[in-house]
Task: structure prediction
Amino acid sequence: MAESHHSDRKSAEEARRETLVPASDLDVWFIQEVLPLEADVMQFLRRSWQNASDVEDLCQEVYVRTYETAKTRIPKPARPFVFTVARNLVIDRARREHVVPIEAVADLEQLGVALDTPGPDRVVLARDELRLLQAALDRLPPRRREVVILGRIEGLKGREIAARLGITEQTVGEHLTEGIRALTDMLLAEPQAAEGKS
Amino acid sequence: MNNEPAAPASDTHRVRTEAAAWIQKRAFWDWSAEDETAFEHWLAAAPSHHIAYLRVQAVWGRTERLSALRRPMNPRAVAPARSHKRFFLAGIAVAAVIFSLVGGFAAFDLPGFGEERFTTAIGDHRIVTLSDGSRIELNTNSVLRLGKTQRQAWLDQGEAYFDIVHDAQHPFSVFVAGKRVEDLGTKFVVRTETGKLTIGLFEGKASLKASAAPQAAELAVLVPGDVAISTAHGTTVTTKTERALRNTLSWRQNMLIFNNTPLTDIADQLNRYNHRKVVIADSSLAQLKIDASIPTNGVEAFGRVAKNYLGLRVQTRESEIIISR
Result:
C-alpha cells in the first residue's frame, strides 16, 4: 500500500464512519416507518402512472431508492421523504419513456398537505390486528389457506403438513410460499390506521 | 427456488416470491448451515432482495399473532400480546441513552507514557480513542491493556472491536490467548472465552500468528468477511456475508441480533451482559429457534417475549429468570 494513497483512504474511511447507519437501525426504520406507507404509495403510483402492471415494480423501486438514500442518513419524518422519492421516480420514468405524467404533477399539489402532516397513528389494538390477519387469511384459496393454517396456527412442520393432507412436500412448499407472498400484499394494502385519523 | 413459469411475472414479483420461499423454507423445513449461507448470499446479491425480504418478513412476523387462534391446548399461548413495537422502541430508546453516555468516553485522552489498562464491568461498553485516531471499543466484562506506543494491545478477557489507522512502519498487534493478531490497517473484532478465540475481520487485512513471538508461524491471513476460530483442536476460518458479520457487532449499539438462533444461545449471549441470568430449564427448548433483536440489558424484555409470544413459563427471581415449558 503506497503511503501517498494513505491520507485519501483515511479521509474516505472517516467520512464513512461518520455517515454509515448500522444496518439494523436502518432495517427497523424501514419496517416501522416506510412499509406502513405502502397502501398510500401504491395509491399514489396508480393515480400517477397509466400502466397498472408497472405499479408493483415502481413501488419496489421507491423502496430501493428510499433505503439506499437512508443508508447515509435516516430521513425523519419518513412520509414526505418517501413521497418525494415516489414523485421523482414517476417523473424520471415518464421522461425516459416520453410520456407526460400530468396526474403525478397534479397530485403533488394535493399531496402537499399530506406531506407535511405526520403519517396516521398506527397503533393497532391487538384485537383489531387479529381481525385484520384473519380476514386476509380468509381470502386465500381454500387449499392454500389450509396449508398456512396448519403451519402457522397449528405449528406443524412442512413434512407433517404434507402427510396430513396427502400432498407432496413440494406442493406444500409452493402453497406456503404463495400464501406468505399473498398475505404480505394483502396486509400491506390495508391502511393500517385503526385510530388517530379522521 | 420456485418453479413458477417465467410468464409475465415482473422482476419484483419474482424477487418477492423468492423472499417468501426463503422464509417458508427456514420456518417449516430442515435448515442447514449451507442453506443459511445460500440465503445470506441471496440477500446480499441486490438491494431489492434485502428489501423484499424485510417486507415479507415484517408481515410474516405479524402473522405470529394468529397462533392465538390455536385451539387452547396450551392456554398460555393466548396470553394477551404486548406490542412488539413498543418493546422494540423501548429497547432502542434505552440503547440510545446508553450510547450517548458511552459516547462521553470517546474523547478519553490517554497519557503518553506507560501501559494503560482499561476494563468494563458486566453490561458496560467503552470506547477508547488513540492519539492517531484509531478506536477500540470494549464490550461487556472485558480487560484490555495498551502498550506505551499504542501499537500493541493485550486483550486479557472479553471482546473488543478494533478500528485501526494503518501505519506501515508500525503495525498494530493484539496479543490474545497466547496468539497474536497483526493488522495491516483494519477493522476487526476479537473475542476470547475459555478455550476459544474468535476473530472477525470487517475491512483490510490481518494476520493471525501462532504465538506472541515475532517469528511465530502464520496460522491464517484474514480478509473481509473471514471469521477465524481457534480452539485447542486448531484454527478454522469461515467466510460470512457482510450482514451476518455486522450483526455480531450490534453490541456496539447495545443490541443483540439473532437469526434463527436457539433459545439457549440467546440466553448465553444475554448472560454475558447481565448480572441477572437467563436459565433455560427445559432441555427440549434448546431446539426452539427464533429471530430476535434484544437490547443487551433486555433480560426482562426477553422474559416477556418468552411468555407472551412463545407461550413459555417464566419465573422471575432476584438473580435469575427461569424459562421452561
Observations:
- Residues 1-23, 101-124, 193-198 of chain A have pLDDT under 50 and may be disordered.
